[in-house]
Write a structure and sequence with these properties.
seven-stranded mixed sheet, 7 helices, binds S-adenosyl-L-homocysteine, 30% helix, Rossmann fold, alpha/beta, 217 residues, 2 domains, globular
Length: 217
């Protein structure tokens, strides 16, 4: 996501450590304690400005959400939304998604969302794609057995790559949408990019993919 640098973004994050967690490796294995309940934990990696995660949190108070994003200005916009909507089931991490195992214990996470991830179309940048095997290995570690990734994108190339990557990793493709907005899918919460691209008439793809049950390996 390209955003203009926001002046004071770092300070904004620092003013709300109850939402944008600092030194968050301390919460590894203790997220339920942090949220003060035993609700499932869903993560979005590359959450952008937070429309999706805050919309999901409003719609599903019975789930705890953690938004992961590495750009500080972008996180500050998501923070605005968490504060505006006065949400208590959302926390934000200003970190790189490749480091998730430092923040979550094995099997601590119930589900992962990826939305409009950067396509990195060049083969030599494959490792940066959030659906490449190294990222999948990190996701599998923090997810509970047979946990799922739910992925939306407008980018056909990244979608095709991701289906292949999931499959080669041994995941099961549970469900695929080749045109989400003209389907019977209910309860879709749009992301910022989804609003932008779909208003230009671009098709939205979606897939739900499940990891193998690691206990059976
Ligand atoms: N999900 C949002 C933003 C999509 S743009 C939406 O749909 O509107 C992709 C976002 O992923 C960018 O904000 C980028 O900073 C973030 N991102 C890319 N790689 C990341 C990584 N390794 N860890 C954390 N965030 C990442």
């Amino acid at each position: 996501m390209r955003v203009r640098k926001r002046k004071g973004a770092e300070e904004m994050l620092a003013e709300h450590p109850e939402i944008v967690l600092e030194e968050a490796t301390a919460w590894k294995g203790r997220w339920q304690q942090l949220f003060g309940n035993d609700h499932p934990i869903h993560i979005e990696i590359g959450m952008g400005k937070g429309n999706f995660i805050t919309g999901m949190a409003q719609a599903h108070p019975e789930i705890n959400y953690v938004g992961v994003e590495m750009q500080v200005s972008v996180v500050s916009h998501a923070l605005d939304k968490v504060l505006e909507k006065d949400l208590h089931n959302v926390r934000l991490l200003h970190i790189d998604g490749s480091a998730l195992t430092e923040y979550f214990a094995d099997s601590e996470v119930d589900q992962i969302y990826l939305n409009f991830s950067d396509p990195w179309p060049k083969k030599r940048h494959e490792k940066r794609r959030l659906t490449s095997p190294d990222f999948l290995a990190v996701d599998e570690t923090v997810l509970k057995p047979a946990g799922e990734i739910h992925f939306k994108t407008d980018n056909q190339g990244l979608f095709e790559y991701s289906l292949g990557s999931f499959s080669q990793y041994g995941m099961t493709i549970q469900k695929v949408w080749l045109d989400l907005h003209n389907s019977d899918f209910e309860g879709n919460i749009m992301t910022e990019y989804e609003e932008k691209f779909s208003s230009r008439g671009q098709r939205i793809y979606r897939v739900e993919a499940r990891f193998p049950d690691k206990r059976k390996k």
